[in-house]
Design a protein that fits this description.
Strand order of the largest sheet: 1-32-29-28
Organism: Gossypium arboreum
Strand content: 35-45%
InterPro entries: F-box-assoc_dom_typ3 (IPR013187), F-box-assoc_interact_dom (IPR017451), F-box-like_dom_sf (IPR036047), F-box_dom (IPR001810), RNase_H-like_dom_plant (IPR044730), RNaseH-like_sf (IPR012337), RNaseH_domain (IPR002156), RNaseH_sf (IPR036397)
Radius of gyration: 27 Å
Oligomer: single chain
Shape: elongated
Pfam family, one: FBA_3
Protein name: F-box domain-containing protein
Number of strands: 32
Length: about 525
């Protein structure tokens, strides 16, 4: 036997329906991503509205064109579970403020690349595409593991074909048999294999070999639908080479370099500055010249845009100073990276994955930026904070049409009530919080003043018990904590999934598109 508890969203829906669509779109598309995510929890009508592809696309366009750049930081320490941070310079020019925000924990996976508000990440076995704000993710097909492999992974989007692609260059090292065991030789790389995956395809494609050295973690520059890298000097080639990969034709080619110095090893890195392919080059005087290609593909269009003098940030500790000097002695181009040009023409620099510095080219001054909870060592990528996602039919994502459910038992473990509700398209973590909130509201109605919550999701228990108000589920967690604060006795316990099989079975009994709360007072 089941009972129905009806919920109404008519009032909220009517308010939204009274406003013209262009006004709603204009207001919501200018809100920060975190604010939009919180608004999705107001009601299902708002959730459907904010998931609208037109709003998502317009919001992404506004976020990409705002007054300042934004970045994703990731701590390089495994002990920190590779925590992600978001830094936004939108208010830096007008107010001198920079937003530095810790993002909700996704998974203990390593940051590789960013494109159109999406991150490419990996662990020891898999590569993922994910949105760090919505925490929607896609696990990519596994590439066959080669023995003793090292490699380079890049992620990009082609505006004409509207396709996202991941490129993996796998280098194989020689192997020798010593004492009955296979060992990796310390000699140079002996072979490369280039693999490409179009997001939405079931498998990787092998497209040939690559005669360039991309084994080191080299930042890429995405311009005109092409990925660009600086191939570092190796034993076979003493000259730095600019290479590109066309995301449409899947062809590599060399790019023309600026005639900036007599040494072929002076080039530091490639980057995108205000939409142009750019390159940094060091000289014997330790100055960093930044060159910009004003007309793509035209060698003569390379011009020197500005010069950055030698600077050592004082916050680098003594052990960093030793590393800094050694790096300069071996590779002078390995110490400083140009990130972007700010709206006021100041230049953002990064030193040794440790310090972010603002350089004023008009006065030749340097200003270090520090933030609370900033990781000691980090990986940094330019990133547009948005709700963007890859919309391809048939993709299996880390979200879906989900249900919430739960079981209420008395102090002796006897069945009191079961319940479930169809939620529609949402993330798993949101469904878990809804299941707990529905149960607490039912207990309140029946006058219980003691409660113990059992969940097979450890993240849920930690978030509630430690008052961690994650942006994605802020309102839900807050409502749960407000109810628990009124209970005389309360506790939260983590249980194994096998012990929660009845609640999981109830979730499978929901009817599609039936968003009312169903209650079952009989366990049979």
């Amino acid at each position: 036997m089941s009972k129905l508890v009806k919920t109404s969203e008519q009032q909220t829906s009517n308010i939204m329906e009274k406003l013209p669509q262009e006004i709603i779109l204009g207001i919501l598309s200018r809100l920060p991503s975190t604010s939009l995510l919180q608004s999705m929890l107001v009601c299902r009508a708002w959730r459907r509205l904010i998931r609208d592809p037109l709003l998502v696309a317009t919001h992404f366009s506004h976020m990409a064109d705002k007054d300042g750049p934004s970045f994703i930081f990731q701590s390089n320490r495994p002990s920190s579970s590779y925590q992600l941070f978001f830094i936004d310079f939108s208010d830096f020019h007008s107010q001198g403020k920079v937003m530095f925000k810790k993002l909700p924990h996704l998974m203990s996976i390593y940051l590789l690349d960013s494109c159109n508000g999406l991150l490419c990440m990996r662990d020891a076995r898999w590569i993922y595409i994910c949105n760090p704000f919505t925490r929607v993710y896609l696990q990519l097909p596994k590439l066959v593991n080669y023995p003793a492999q090292v490699g380079h992974i890049a992620f990009g989007f082609h505006q004409t074909t509207k396709q996202y692609k991941v490129i993996q260059v796998v280098y194989l090292r020689q192997q020798v048999l010593l004492g009955g065991r296979i060992n990796v030789a310390t000699s140079t790389l002996v072979q490369s294999q280039v693999h490409v995956l179009t997001i939405g395809d079931p498998s990787w494609r092998h497209i040939g070999t690559l005669p360039y050295d991309l084994a080191r973690p080299i930042p890429k520059a995405l311009v005109n639908g092409r990925l660009h890298w600086l191939s570092k000097p190796n034993n076979d080639n003493t000259a730095s080479i600019f290479i590109s990969f066309d995301l449409e034709t899947e062809q590599f080619q060399e790019m023309a370099k600026p005639d900036c110095c007599g040494s072929n090893r002076c080039f530091h890195h490639l980057m995108v500055l205000r939409g142009f392919l750019s390159a940094g080059a060091y000289h014997d005087n330790d100055e960093l010249e930044v060159w910009v290609m004003k007309e793509y593909g035209i060698k003569e269009s390379w011009i020197k845009e500005f010069t950055i003098g030698n600077h050592l940030p004082p916050t680098l500790q003594q052990n960093d100073l030793l590393h800094f000097n050694m790096a300069k002695a071996r590779f002078p181009n390995s110490s400083v990276r140009v990130l972007c040009i700010l709206r006021n023409d100041e230049i953002l620099l990064e030193y040794l994955n440790r310090v972010v510095v603002v350089f004023d080219p008009r006065h030749g001054t340097f200003k270090e930026l520090t933030f609370d909870a900033m990781p000691h060592w980090y990986k940094l990528v330019v990133h547009v904070g948005s709700l963007n996602w890859i919309h391809i039919p048939g993709l299996s994502l880390g979200e879906g049409h989900l249900e919430s459910s739960g079981v209420i038992r008395d102090g002796k473990g006897n069945w009191v009530l079961g319940y479930n509700r169809f939620l529609g398209k949402c993330l798993v973590v949101v469904a878990e919080f809804w299941g707990i909130l529905d149960g607490l509201l039912l207990l309140q109605e029946q006058g219980y003043d003691e409660v113990t919550i059992h969940s097979d999701n450890l993240e849920i228990i930690i978030s509630i018990s430690n008052s961690i108000l994650e942006e994605l589920s802020f309102n839900l967690i807050r409502r749960i904590q407000q109810i628990l604060a009124k209970e005389e006795k309360r506790s939260l316990r983590y249980i194994l999934r096998e012990a929660n099989r009845i609640a999981n079975a109830l979730a499978k009994m929901t009817l599609p598109n039936d968003e009312v709360l169903h209650m079952f007072d009989d366990s049979r």
